[in-house]
Design brief:
73% of the residues lie in helices and 1% in strands. The longest helix is centred in the C-terminal third of the chain and has 40 residues. The chain has 19 helices and 2 strands. The chain has a two-stranded antiparallel ribbon. 50% of the residues are buried.
Length: 514
């Protein structure tokens, strides 16, 4: 059955009253958490994971996808009205968006952000529907060694790209891999890292870990740095755009989409890089260079389109390969595992109703977000007035309630507090959160593929690279690991070469300077 027919079946699933209600709930929650600085979609989904145990998986994932897309939408509101990005991916929007707002053009800035997000999200979702089945067909032909290599590449790229310090990234990854080892060895049944505590024999529940690291860790961190201050937002009426605004926005929307989707699909690509690239591109191509830095509408339209297109790109490797490329995708992968659904290329074959219903819901969610964001922008701005102590006290309450609801064991609350303190310490010392979550999720899967590869090769180490795809991926891994050393050697070589040339010129002043 072709993609179009499968997508039509997906719409029949997504348009049921129950799934439509969860889509509406997801986009509303997502926009709200995007508007509130410090609360991202990853934290929101982690908080809701325990509450969705008894939900039908398709409905829960449709809600989570709505939260993800809504978070991308909502972050632009704080960037434009408050000059405080709700999400890291909307940092660049604040540069021109807040200047437009201060100049009395907040309505136009919010409108181009909302419409650009809708255009980019719709095109990105169409690309997801077109390319994900192709990736699946390729992935089904791969063996354990290729999967092992791809997952190792994902771990390394996420760890090496994020943050200013690679050492901190690998330290965070090591913590995630260690937490993933807690419990019983899946082959021998031997206890690992349980420290004589029988309740740890089943391992740490990924839901409890996600809630602790994201919600509790962030709430403690914010509480430690909370400053009582009154925030004043710029008033805005109903967002609208004039003819000239449309003319200056539609090309940046398309260019931002072209940049955002592929970056979202790449490991550690995320939305930050394409938004900065989009801003740079628009700054070079604009016919109004004097407005950049003073409120150019292209500087809002392009980055916001890149931001939302990257969200669709992120779902491509998540659904086709079971490979998360950012924190929100990692928590969504945890949700799949919570419902007993095996992520990876067989997901399209084993759960077609869920996958295509989810993809179809993205089209619906984008439309709902546009309908909600344009008329409700003034209401979203009022959310910024919620006192932060009340907000984060509520987060801690729901985190504790959700963690306890997973297994109804008080021991989980101890784990929640310990890992919450770990999340606080990681923020204190600058360790990125994403490598820990990716390591926790992919670690056991990497171990499974590693053992399978050795079993198929009778213990021969060549079984790790006995497929062409594995060889190519390992070459990429070697390049990623060696590139910093090569760059460092080159930086040291150039001054030495220049010094040698100057010394030669001093000895023979008549040499021709090259």
């Amino acid at each position: 059955m072709d993609t179009f027919n499968l997508l039509l079946q997906g719409f029949s699933t997504a348009l049921t009253p129950m799934n439509l209600m969860f889509a509406c709930l997801g986009v509303l929650l997502g926009t709200a958490v995007g508007v509130l600085p410090g609360i991202g979609p990853a934290m929101a989904i982690a908080l809701l994971l325990p509450l969705t145990y008894n939900l039908e998986p398709t409905s829960a994932l449709i809600m989570f996808a709505g939260i993800y897309y809504g978070g991308m939408y909502g972050g632009s509101t704080t960037s434009i009205l408050l000059n405080t990005p709700g999400e890291s991916s909307t940092v660049i929007t604040a540069i021109e968006g807040h200047k437009m707002a201060k100049a009395g053009r907040a309505a136009q800035a919010l409108a181009t952000a909302a419409i650009g997000s809708f255009v980019a999200g719709t095109i990105g979702t169409a690309l997801l529907a077109a390319f994900a089945p192709v990736v699946v067909k390729f992935a089904v032909s791969l063996g354990p060694s290729s999967y092992l290599a791809i997952m190792i590449l994902g771990l390394l790229t996420v760890t090496a790209v994020l943050g200013a310090s690679k050492l901190r990234g690998f330290a965070s990854l090591g913590l995630g891999l260690a937490i993933g080892l807690v419990g019983l060895d899946p082959v021998t049944g031997q206890q690992r890292l349980v420290f004589g505590i029988p309740l740890l024999s089943d391992g740490l529940d990924i839901v409890v870990v996600a809630v602790a690291i994201f919600a509790v860790g962030e709430a403690l961190w914010i509480a430690a740095h909370l400053r009582r201050s009154k925030t004043s937002t710029i008033p805005v009426g109903q967002p609208w755009m004039g003819k000239q605004d449309w003319k200056r926005s539609w090309k940046p929307w398309l260019r931002g989409t072209a940049l955002g989707f592929p970056f979202g699909a790449m490991p550690a690509g995320g939305a930050e890089v394409p938004t900065f690239l989009s801003y740079s591109v628009e700054k070079k191509l604009t016919k109004h260079p004097d407005e950049f830095g003073h409120g150019a509408i292209e500087g809002v339209a392009g980055p916001e389109a890149a931001n939302n297109a990257s969200a669709a790109g992120t779902l491509t490797p998540l659904l086709a390969l079971g490979l998360p490329t950012n924190a929100t995708a990692g928590v969504m992968l945890a949700a799949l595992m919570q419902f007993g659904i095996q992520p990876g290329p067989l997901l399209f074959q084993n759960e077609p109703i869920l996958v295509w219903g989810l993809i179809a819901s993205l089209f619906i969610g984008n439309t709902l977000l546009l309908l909600f964001n344009l008329p409700m922008a003034p209401l979203w701005a009022k959310l910024l007035r919620i006192p932060r102590p009340y907000l984060y006290a509520g987060i801690l309450f729901f985190a504790t309630l959700g963690a306890y609801a997973v297994n109804l064991q008080a021991f989980d609350l101890v784990i929640l507090l310990v890992l919450g303190a770990l999340g606080f310490a990681m923020r204190r010392f600058g360790l990125p959160i994403l490598p820990l979550i990716i390591g926790l999720i992919l670690g056991p899967r990497i171990e499974g593929q590693l053992r399978k590869a050795f079993q198929l090769s009778a213990g021969n180490i060549s079984g790790l690279w006995n497929e062409p795809v594995a060889v190519v991926v390992y070459l990429l891994v070697a390049l990623i690991l060696c590139w910093p050393l090569v760059a460092l050697a080159w930086r040291r070589f150039r001054p030495a070469k220049a010094a040698a040339r100057e010394a030669a010129l001093e000895r023979d002043p008549h040499q021709i300077r090259l």
